[in-house]
Design goal:
The complex is a heterodimer of chains A (about 550) and B (about 60). Chain A is of the alpha/beta class. Among the domains of chain A are: about 210 residues, FAD/NAD(P)-binding domain (3-Layer(bba) Sandwich); about 100 residues, Glutaredoxin, CATH 3.40.30.10. Chain A contains 13 helices and 24 strands. In chain A, strands 1, 2, 8, 9, 10, 11, 17 and 18 form an eight-stranded mixed β-sheet that branches. Chain A has an eight-stranded mixed β-sheet with strand order 6-5-13-14-15-12-16-19. Chain A has a five-stranded mixed β-sheet with strand order 22-21-20-23-24, with helices on one face. The longest helix of chain A has 23 residues. Chain B is an all-alpha fold. Chain B has one domain. Chain B is about 75% helix and about 0% strand. The chains are: A alpha/beta (about 550), B mainly alpha (about 60). At the A-B interface, α10 of A face α1 of B.
Chain lengths: ~550, ~60
């Protein structure tokens, strides 16, 4: 919602473009390999991933412009790596505010300052704040520049019907109705997904009691980009407040609603104004401020039993709704988009069998369940559901003032990317390793001596990282390159030149120590940078046989 | 005790307070404190815990 007199798209800092309905001078019903329903961050990420493998797609978006409010604001390191792999990280890095720290206060006194995992080997900060409209704008610009993505605004999907090896999608736009034939469909149409209801699927899980009002305020406020959590503050007694800095002098303030207050009265402009005035007074802001946008939010942990329905895949909020406290809504959805994107591209390009797609649900649904496990703890702390949880929360906060151990309960558990340990395409671990990244986890980055990043050497497809000596590897490399046209082999510290492989010297063992690797070890890295498998003293055929199985018809 | 174990205790205790009911929560927690105090190897520790828990009650 916006202040009286301003329409939903009249922002203080963002100019919304108005996109025209699709032009009828083309063959609209021409078949597309992939139709994507929804031009939000998740749908655009999937389209850009497909395009990075040369696969075209059509995006159908009901609205005529970007999201009306800023909604998602926290973009994690793992999402920045996804943007980076798509070649679009640059505008995000220019606009977004990176951060590493959070502070928790109880009744005005600081009980915890936490630092998220960060070290000199990371290419990106653990978290960045940036408004959702910018995320959509930058992804949209990249999609338009790719030449492979046809974005149709004003396009309402009215039916989704599987038909043999296709999906027929009924589309309605201001110029009439038509049927789009697609090889595959990705439902990226959000929490209230129309595709999900048309297909008769339901999200299952829990709704939590606590509600928050989320408000964006513009002000010149002198405080670093540090997440603040205020428990039981004078301006919201018994409740919680979260404060985040965003670009353009916009500040996100989330405050918990009194359980007895109705959403209507809580969302009235006068109520929001007086609440914000009290909060700003408490945090010592004396200058002017303007209301930008506000909304109400309740915590849910809901997901589909299966993210796949034949040739239709659910990605992002259409498949799962997570509480905001773990900042995993957008980040989890963007990872869905990349995951299904590379797998579909390999199938469509004829390099992989359709069995590869069976790994999408276990990997991404597994990631959501992992988010739930942590988010439920955070949610119970932020908005205790019962008298017992409220007593324990108050006890932990009160103790934390003098006993530092108790402050750990107030840590928001903003978590690391999920490890696909149980995935059908993750190799069993080689027990000879006693450290380093396990199969299914995200392969580490290493900052090399010249300041470059090891992750920048990874291929768009699969990457074989082999720690020398590498004698006899040429034949394996040639066969792997024949299976995956986007493949690359990187040989570290080999004294001989290996045909078909990129050679890298690692004299100070910077890469080896990040991978926990010894000479003769091999690592197979997937297009999404998750580790498919690792082998100690690897037989030359081990990574080839793993890749053959992953892509098997 | 590791923090992960402490988290399990936190959650179990929250649910137990709900089972005891608001009116009997203080009785339940007092019984629990006595049982835990009996397990302490150093008798000084439960007495220190009483003082620590008395802080910041307002």
């Amino acid at each position: 919602m916006r202040p009286d007199g301003r329409s939903e798209l009249q922002s203080l800092y963002f100019s919304y473009p108005q996109f025209a309905p699709p032009d009828r001078g083309r063959n609209f019903a021409a078949e597309t390999p992939v139709a994507i329903i929804g031009a939000g961050p998740v749908g655009l990420t999937a389209a850009l991933t497909l395009a990075s493998f040369g696969v075209p797609s059509v995006i159908l978006e009901k609205k005529s412009t970007f999201n009306d409010g800023s909604r998602a604001i926290c973009v994690s390191r793992s999402s920045f790596h996804i943007l980076d792999r798509l070649g679009v990280a640059e505008p995000f890095l220019e606009k977004a505010l990176g951060w590493t720290k959070g502070r928790s206060l109880y009744r005005g006194r600081q009980i915890l300052e936490f630092d998220m995992l960060h070290d000199a080997h990371e290419k990106f900060m653990p978290m960045y704040n940036i408004q959702q409209q910018y995320i959509e704008l930058y992804l949209y610009e990249a999609a338009r520049a790719s030449g492979l993505i046809d974005i149709r605004w004003h396009s309402d999907v009215t039916s989704v019907t599987p038909s043999g090896a296709h999906v027929e999608i009924g589309v309605s736009d201001p110029n009439g109705d038509y049927t789009l034939k697609a090889g595959w469909a990705l439902a990226a149409d959000g929490a209230r997904s129309a595709v999900r209801s048309m297909r008769g699927h339901r999200l299952k899980g829990e709704n939590f009691e606590g509600r928050y009002v989320i408000v964006d305020v513009r002000m010149e406020h002198d405080y670093p980009t540090i997440r603040r959590a205020l428990f039981d503050p004078a301006s919201n007694p018994g409740g919680t407040i979260l404060i985040h800095r965003q670009p353009e002098n916009i500040w996100r303030i989330d405050y918990q609603l009194d359980p007895d207050e109705s959403a209507e009265s809580a969302l009235a402009e006068a109520t929001v104004r007086s609440k914000i005035a009290a909060i700003l007074d408490e945090i010592g802001h004396r200058g002017a401020w303007e209301l930008e946008w506000w909304s109400v939010y309740a915590a849910n942990t809901l997901l589909l039993d299966d993210y796949r329905d034949g040739r239709i895949f659910f990605i992002g909020d259409s498949a799962h709704i997570v509480p905001i406290f773990g900042v995993r809504g957008l980040n989890n959805g963007v990872a869905d988009g990349e995951n299904i994107g590379w797998k579909l591209a390999k199938v469509i390009n004829g390099e992989a069998g359709e069995r590869l797609l069976d790994s999408y649900t276990p990997e991404r649904r597994g990631a959501t369940l992992d988010v739930f496990a942590n988010a439920v703890k955070s949610t119970r702390f932020m908005t205790p559901p019962t008298h017992g949880f409220a007593m324990m929360r108050d006890a932990a906060l009160s103790l934390a003032l003098t006993e530092p151990f108790a402050a750990a309960f107030a840590n928001p558990r903003q978590m690391a990317p999920f490890t696909y340990a149980e995935s059908p395409i993750t190799e069993e671990d080689d027990r000879a390793f006693d450290g380093g990244p396990r199969p299914g986890s995200v392969a580490p980055n290493a900052r090399l001596e010249d300041g470059s990043n090891f992750c920048d050497f990874y291929a768009r497809g699969f990457t074989l990282v082999w720690f020398g000596p590498a004698g006899g590897l040429e034949e394996t490399i040639a066969q792997m390159a024949a299976l995956d046209r986007d493949f690359r082999a990187i040989v570290i510290n080999s004294d001989q030149k290996i045909a078909g492989a990129q050679s890298l010297a690692d004299p100070r063992n910077l890469i080896a120590s990040r991978f926990g690797a010894k000479p003769g070890d091999a690592f197979l890295i997937r297009p999404d940078q998750h580790l498919a498998g690792r082998w100690r003293g690897a037989p030359v055929e081990a990574p080839l046989s793993a890749l053959t199985q992953i892509l098997a018809p | 005790m590791e923090f992960a174990d402490l988290e399990i205790f936190y959650e179990r205790l929250a649910k137990a307070i709900d089972r005891a009911g608001e009116a009997k929560a203080a009785l339940f927690l007092s019984k629990l404190a006595l049982l835990l105090a009996r397990e302490a190897e150093n008798p000084q520790k439960p007495l220190e815990a009483i003082e620590a828990a008395l802080k910041d009650l307002e």
